[in-house]
Amino acid sequence: MAPYSVYVRAVRLALEEKGVAYRLDPVDVFAKDGPPASLLERQPFGRIPAFEHDGFRLYEAGAIERYVDEAFPGPALQPSAPRERARVNQLTSILDSYAYRTLVWDIYVERVSVPKQGRAPDEARIQTALPKAQLCLRAINDLMDDGPYLAGAALTLADLHAAPMFAYFTLAPEAEALLAEQPAIKAWWASMSRRPAVQATAYPA
Ligand SMILES: N[C@@H](CCC(=O)N[C@@H](CS)C(=O)NCC(=O)O)C(=O)O
């Protein structure tokens, strides 16, 4: 699985935080001829990650993260109280449904990756994304209560799902002003980015 992938990294963060050893098999999901057949056999939509544990195959990062948390010993990454657990699932869904495309593709990829490839960024796409990013950050901030983690006092899968998205987003200069409006998220990211698991999975290393 590719170390640059947001969703592969989120699963790796869960494995790292649980202290579970794992192997990353390389796959080029953006290959010119499309995703390789070996991936499609495991993930029919041609996305990564595709995960396997003792013959049990699973795709969809959120499902893999929850499996990792529940199938292995180590610190619990989901609260047991229904309402707290629901917040973790709510944040994960917000990240998947609204934040990933806006923060990573519309802002980071367009502002940082596209110029590296020698192309001009689509400024209109970035401008359209900025209020959407603001909305995402505000919504996440509103759910944080007193923090310091996204779902409250303890580290959860919500933090690990979000961290790879923020690692890319914060490389775009636009992130600074947006995060200045949400100091709790800014402080969260400053602390998350120093975690050994986050540093161990950094891309580029
Ligand atoms: N819903 C999927 C999304 C996974 C996903 O979008 N992965 C990206 C890499 S971070 C990918 O495979 N992109 C390839 C493509 O869009 O063709 C999950 O949760 O696993």
TrEMBL record:
Claim: Transferase is one of the keywords in the record: yes
SUPFAM superfamilies assigned: GST C-terminal domain-like, Thioredoxin-like
Root EC class: transferase
Domain called GST C-terminal: residue spans: 81-205
Pfam families named among the record's database cross-references: GST_C, GST_N_3
Superkingdom in the source lineage: Bacteria
Enzyme Commission no: 2.5.1.18
GO cellular component: cytoplasm
Gene Ontology molecular functions: glutathione binding; glutathione transferase activity
InterPro entries given in the database record: Glutathione-S-Trfase_C-like, Glutathione-S-Trfase_C_sf, Glutathione_S-Trfase, Glutathione_S-Trfase_N, GST_C, Thioredoxin-like_sf
Domain GST N-terminal residue range list: 1-76
Keywords: Transferase
Protein known as: glutathione transferase
Organism in which the protein naturally occurs: Bosea thiooxidans
